[in-house]
Amino acid sequence: MRDVAIIGIGQTPVGEHWEKSLRHLAHDAIMAAMRDASIEAAEALYVGNMLSGALNGQEHLGALIADFVGLRGIEAMKVEAACGSGAAAVRVGAMAIASGMHELVLVCGIEKMSDAIGNLTTGALATAADQEYEVSQGISFVGLNALLMRRYMHEYDVAKEAFAGFTVNAHRNGAHNPNAMFRSPVSEAAYARAGMIADPINLLDSSPVCDGAACLVLAPADRYRSRAKALILASAVAIDSLAIHDRRDPLVLDAAVISSQKAYAEARLTPANIQFFEAHDAFSIMSALSLEAAGFAPRGAGVRLAQDGEIAIGGHIPLSTMGGLKARGHPVGATGVYQIVEAVQQLTGQAGQNQVAGATIGMAQNIGGSGATVVTHILGAV
């Protein structure tokens, strides 16, 4: 198997792009990545997306986007793994390079959510859960995460206010990210005043509905080392049940545990070697559970890292360094690609005021559903 390098990155600002369609957003990210990589063509395009059929009435995105960006004739397809679709597409692209099947691969994450009205979006997002045993009973995706958060608070005797640190950290970092949807800091007092969505999850616990696209150019490291920005040291995926009640323990993201362990083994690293973590902080509870599953904190102690400031840029394990899903935004099928684009920025010293000093190894973890699919990538500086 060949080592995989990232030789180009591109992204659009995350927000409500009323004036742009799916194909135009994807075009902007792909063209930026191809310019960054100094290439004019590629052999394959893998598109990470979850909701195009439900919200935009458009499937068959691989062919649509490849044709629109002038790459008619190449291999192109959509990769779907709910909210983990972006990183799943990266994994497919990495396997194509590592196996020798292709020399230049584009991976584009794209989602256009803001055009649909709220109840349609809520219903579409709920398809990441178990339709027969969860959604049909009337619970929303936010509701499922609220149940997890309530159970966490009960099990570990944690106050609601303890989660404020995740929001404060994300918005502090997002304030310095020109591509973030929310670029204003948030205080603990503002967190305490935020309106409730599904008790105990409030507005500032939740990532926003938004649009965006991000793109990577992947190539074999041995042939493109002079252009390499970062190396993919590990790519791993694991799954658990869609329904939370079917899991061994609802407060342990087993798929994240397994995916992380696979990635550490592949990269020959341990959690102690990871210098920053791009977590899937769609809700505050997911930040705590992810930190624990990835080995950065014992059970019930993930929230303490936020309380103690250990997830800040200068902390023990910097988290969501460019704002994460909470402040940068969560265009669901694109999120996993945004995470890796941002990790590359860290590893190349291009993260501006959010730069983690001396960063050479980082990890990105993208979650589909409430923990049913978890894709973990570890990246290293060249």
Task: Give structural notes.
β5 (196-198) and β6 form a beta hairpin. With 382 residues, the chain is an alpha/beta fold. The longest helix has 16 residues, at 22-37. α1 (22-37) packs across α3 and α4 crosses α14 (332-347). The strands form 2 sheets. Strands 3-2-4-7-1-8-11-10-9 form a 9-stranded mixed beta sheet, sandwiched between helices. It is built from 14 helices and 11 strands. The mean pLDDT is 98.
Task: Looking at this protein, list some descriptive labels.
alpha/beta, 11 strands, 36% helix, 18% strand, single chain, 382 residues, Peroxisomal Thiolase, Chain A, domain 1, 9-stranded mixed beta sheet, two-stranded antiparallel ribbon, 2 domains
Report the principal-axis shape: globular
What are the secondary-structure elements, in order, as H or E? EHEHHEHEHHHHEEEHEHEHHHHEE
* CATH homologous superfamily label of the largest domain: Thiolase/Chalcone synthase
Q: Give a quick account of the main beta sheet: strands, pairing sense, barrel closure.
A: 9 strands, mixed
What is CATH's topology name of the largest domain? Answer: Peroxisomal Thiolase, Chain A, domain 1
Given this structure, which CATH class of the largest domain is correct? Alpha Beta
For the largest beta sheet, what order do the strands appear in spatially?
3-2-4-7-1-8-11-10-9
The total of helices stands at 14
- Name the structural class: alpha/beta
User: Could you tell me the number of beta strands?
Assistant: 11
C-alpha-based Rg, rounded: 19 Å
Q: Report the average pLDDT across residues.
A: 98
How many domains would you count in the coordinates? 2
Strand fraction equals 15-25%
Q: Per CATH, which architecture of the largest domain? A: 3-Layer(aba) Sandwich
Residue share in helix: 25-40%
Low-confidence runs of at least 5 consecutive residues: none
Rounded to the nearest angstrom, the distance between the terminal CA atoms is 18 Å
